[in-house]
Prior knowledge:
By secondary structure, the protein is of the alpha/beta class. It contains 17 helices and 19 strands.
Amino acid sequence: MSNYIHIENLSFSYPGASCQIFSNLNLSIYDGTTVFTGANGSGKTTLASLIAGQAEPSCGRVRCSGSVVIQDQVFIEISTEDLINIYDGSKENGELMSKLEITDDMIMNPDHLSGGEKKRLQLLACLSSHPEIIILDEPTNHLDQKNKEIMISTLNSLDIIKIIITHDRDSADRLSSRTIIFEKEGDSPSVLYDIPLPLSLSLDELKRRKDSLFKEYSKVQSDINYLKGKSQRLSEKSSSMEKKLSKANIDKKDHSAKAKIDGARLTSKDRSLSDQKRRIESLESHKQKELDGMVRPKMKKEGLSIKASSGYLKEIFFPSTIIERGDFILSIPDVIIREGDKIGITGDNGAGKTVFINALIERIKELGKEDLLLYVAQEYSKDDEVRILSEFDSLNDQEKAEILSDMYRLSSDPSFLLERNISPSPGELKKLDFAISKQKGRRIIIMDEITNHLDIKAIMIMEDMLKNSDCTLILVSHDKAFLDSITNRRFEIIRKGNTSCLNVLN
């Protein structure tokens, strides 16, 4: 019998909250992989918690065919229970260790592992209890290509229900042909779009559906407006006709004029106008009922643009050099970056991508072009948070309004900037830093793993903006779809042992 998840008439809101996350939700999921995606705060993780039994619905129910485990975004530790499960002597767990390339030494010394190795170990721990259902929250986030390949291959080999919460289009497309897109507007419950396509195609399909609904809604609205106008014109014409057929201003002895009016009335000219008006009003009423039965499309303003600021930049010449960091060596050949280049930089974790970026930033400073540079870091410290929020506070009201608008267009709720009752998430801080820097105007943009912590809507908006920008771009990313869409040049850093080399591919 196939595994299943049945969600029936489920409603949920957090205690003390005034709005519902879900209302009368019905959904079924069976063996295979289903991708959950959508903006931050749209309910993806909440629904995962409800499926796993970590939260209780306000009403309705969730039925699952077997045990459920969740792989969280952050690796914490390998517990005693995990060790017992991993070494239960089963053939399945032995095969899992082999597929995930996990050794006994890695299990016993997790603190010495890289981020990608910890992700693989975390997946082993989750699967070692032989669950029928696994939910993975951003399993490929921060992973280099090698670790992604291991994770994807392992997940595709599993004959269980897999729910993957992700914004990684390339990995999602290789894992699943079913996507559920979550959308939430204001205090309204989340709306789920269940599309039987891989993530990339699902995003296109949802846009097509929304565009079609908008056109259909606009057409009916236009028909109503036309009928209202026609009805008004008929009313005016009928009123004019009534005045012409009135005997009020005719002399009592003018029998000829009275006869003409009686003749006109007998020909039903006035009744004809009234009949037309009634038919038009009936059709208008029918169209209005049709419109009332339609869901009004919400066309949220999205999208940003960024143009290169003034300032001369023909090219950046980075002379060949060798950078040493302890035992690690990075070899860099002569590199020329020309104005308007859009360069993607790839390489495994630890290969030296950030080392090269830091050296490039120093070179830009040496050339006196620092004022043309916009740099968005991969991660932010508490000090960075304080600095960025202070920068926002120092802006005038008009500048703040522009920042709030940009944040909204990047699918954020910018209220945290006004209330300050909670710290911004890493994704919100990254968007805010970019929005503030964007306002200053730049010609060179360097971004280190820009898609980390961003939801799918923000990634798509950022991608479209950078693709259409005339700025010089240097983008470090493991997000293949993101780089393929934007860049026209590619650098790759390959590490062997303690030595890495930057290769200019084109």
